């Protein structure tokens, strides 16, 4: 039997990307519309999505405050501090909301999914499933992948809402800007379809990417403590890089 | 039922011939032959790292032999397609070393998983089946517990209930008694015998626990240095004159089974 040969180091990232792509194909190939899949996906939406809400909301609120602070400082020099809601809204809905939510999700939920699956590998639970003629990709990976893709857009919407609240608190409550001007500029200058929904589409892709990377590394973790640790580290590193790379690609194609 | 009784003959249910398995340049199994008779409990014994679990993985089709064949019920396992392998595995129960219970499911759901996955039984029947299996391993009343709330012995018993819940023909045990206290060891051993005889199973036990296996099993294979060093009934093996079998069965330090790991290269020497 021919022994598989490792690719040269320079080709390793390409080979890794290929393996992750094949894993995605295998996962999607196992997709069957069954009530059990819906149930386990909803359960995972609660575990990875709902349980990330608090951190997303706190971070969103403070990001909104700091955005407003920086925007007011910059715009004041041109006598345009009343444009703060426009600047905050555009940058938040198009870029910061989806990207920061996905990065936070990778750190909070991606690592937990990779560690959970890695531990299942280390304690032979995945082996047991295969021996029971149950496809572990369908049973374990697919619901977590779908849950990530569903959760990140919802979390992004929540992040955006809390960030706007943070901007309102700082701009109107602290800096004393006029509330009417703030809201009218936001309403007239920020477009629901183009800005908000555009960002939500991005977050759907980011959610899919983070979950794919997390389930892939969890599934292929070495069955040791160090192996599980490496899987979680790789998940954060690769998902963060991919989020920023795909953000640039999507922004340059769709803007 | 008739079919199961009709098959309960001395004709081997598992036939292994000239089995060779290598990992890289190391030969783990080198020409192993085994015949596992129906209805028996057969032990595969030998020192740690000799390839006992590898034999189980070759039987279940998780690994493929480099040479030779593994046949179960006349089917060559390595030739089965992925779909055929899935069907084949439904008829084989496996109890892994640490039980391998699903940590996110209750005891009940652990045992019910294979039933839900492979049958369309209505929920009341699933419940009745799972509860009867839990009762048979003495764990009625634990169905709502999570695996982390169980002792090692209880977890192993739940894993046994899960392995036999679909009434397989063959049950494979990988070190079922490792790390258990003496009472749990006796309990699991008794359950293995009772389950095997009551359900008309064939059981293969991978272990290095000579004492317990002498009491439990019908037949033993001892693997050393990649080959079958000895086979027979446990009592006969204890009296064997074969140096490897004698060393293993009687726990002797000196003998042909080496203490040092053999990396497969030239021998290390102080003079080198």
Task: Summarize this structure briefly.
Chain A has 255 residues and is mostly helical. Chain A has helices at residues 12-29, 35-49, 53-76, 84-122, 125-131, 136-174, 179-189, 192-219, 225-254.
Task: Determine the number of helices of chain A (DSSP H or I, runs of at least 4 residues).
Answer: 9
What is the β-strand count of chain B? 10
In N-to-C order, the SSE pattern of chain B is HEEEHEEHEHHHEHEHEEHH
CATH topology of the domain at 2-98 and 167-249 in chain B, by name, is Rossmann fold
CATH architecture of the domain at 2-98 and 167-249 in chain B: 3-Layer(aba) Sandwich
Helix content of chain A: over 70%
Rounded mean pLDDT score of chain B:
84
From the alpha carbons, calculate the radius of gyration of chain B and give it in angstroms: 20 Å
* Coarse shape of chain B: globular
CATH superfamily of the domain at 2-98 and 167-249 in chain B: P-loop containing nucleotide triphosphate hydrolases
Biggest sheet overview of chain B: 6 strands, mixed
N-end to C-end Cα span of chain A = 51 Å
Query: Which two chains touch over the largest interface?
Result: A-B, 16 and 24 residues
Briefly, what CATH class of the domain at 2-98 and 167-249 in chain B? Alpha Beta
Output mean pLDDT of chain A. 90
State the share of residues found in helices of chain B, binned by percent: 25-40%
* Tally of domains of chain A: 1
Give the low-confidence spans of chain A. none
Can you give a write-up of this model?
The complex is a heterodimer of chains A (255) and B (272). Chain A has helices at 12-29, 35-49, 53-76, 84-122, 125-131, 136-174, 179-189, 192-219, 225-254. Chain A is mainly α and 255 residues long. Chain A has one domain (37-254). Chain A is elongated and about 70 Å long. In chain A, 44% of the residues are buried. Chain B is α/β, with parallel strands linked by helices and 272 residues long. Chain B has a domain at 2-98 and 167-249: Rossmann fold (3-Layer(aba) Sandwich). Helix content of chain B is 36%, strand content 24%. Chain B contains 10 helices and 10 strands. Chain B has helices at 2-6, 52-60, 82-89, 107-118, 123-136, 152-164, 182-199, 210-216, 234-238, 243-249; strands at 12-23, 26-37, 41-45, 67-72, 75-76, 92-95, 170-174, 202-207, 219-224, 227-232. In chain B, strands 6-7-8-3-9-10 form a 6-stranded mixed beta sheet, sandwiched between helices. A 4-stranded antiparallel beta sheet of chain B has the order 2-1-4-5, with helices on one face. In chain B, helix 7 links the parallel strand 7 and strand 8 (202-207). Chain B is globular and about 70 Å long. At the A-B interface, helix 5 of A face helix 3 and helix 4 of B.
